[in-house]
Amino acid sequence: MIYHLSLQRAGLIAGGVLILLSLPGLLKPDLAAVVQKFPRSRGAGFILLTVDLIWTLWLLATIEMGEFAAFRRPLLIVVPIGYILVLRFVDEFLAVRALGILCLLIAEPLLDAAFLRYETSRLFVTVFAYLLIVAGLFWVMIPYILRDQINWGARNTGRWRMLHGIAFVCGAVILGFAVTQY
Q1: CA nearest to 125, candidates 164, 181, 163
Q2: SS3 at position 50
Q3: How far, in Å, CA of 174 to CA of 182, rounded?
Q4: Residue 4 above 90 pLDDT?
Q5: Which own/partner contact pairs does 121-124 have at CB distance under 8 Å and 24+ positions apart?
Q6: What are the structural domain ranges in the chain?
Q7: What is the pLDDT of residues 57-99, one digit of tens each?
Q8: Phi and psi at residue 52, in whole multiples of 5°?
Q9: In this predicted model, which residue has the larger pLDDT, 55 or 121?
């Protein structure tokens, strides 16, 4: 285990984050205009990519790499160089790509926490983690998809609230199981 995160703590964090991210969309649907600017936001891309870099460097520095341990030092050198090159040359949808990378990084501790647990309710955390993986892969490789998803969701207030309501309910279910089952 890299993260030493219990299933209960992972459920509390995942459910709480889902609830916190869905509440603004439920309560203030006019924030859709702000969210629509996210995919091309250079500042958000810089912040998210920096978080990705720090997390990745921490992983590279601390995980047991086994037979690939010889690659640790070169990767610790190449990853920051790649970060600088991405900031310099990837202008289009940097925020979306960085969010996709973050989704991929977030999924691992959730799956790690649910690994070898017998509760059926752990599948809520597991399914959420795999949804993050699928979304992250699509957003990194085809970043305009998030822009299209946001525009589709923001087309009318009812749809925007419904999507955030679904996220709120999913977060509440995960949070409820984290409190009662794990």
Answers
A1: 181
A2: helix
A3: 10
A4: no
A5: 121/177, 121/181, 121/182, 122/7, 122/182, 124/11, 124/170, 124/173, 124/174, 124/177
A6: 7-40+95-180
A7: 999 888 888 888 888 899 999 999 999 999 999 888 999 999 9
A8: -60, -45
A9: 55
Report the SS3 class of residue 153: helix
Residue 167 has pLDDT above 80, yes or no: yes
- Side chain identity at residue 115, one-letter code: F
Q: Are 125 and 112 in contact (CB under 8 A)?
A: no
**Cα–Cα distance, 74 to 78 (Å, whole number):** 6
Cβ(148)–Cβ(115) under 8 Å?
Answer: no
Two tokens, residue 38: 């996210």
Q: What is the pTM of this model?
A: 0.87
Which residues are CB-contacts of 122 (< 8 A; sequence separation ≥ 6)? 7, 114, 182
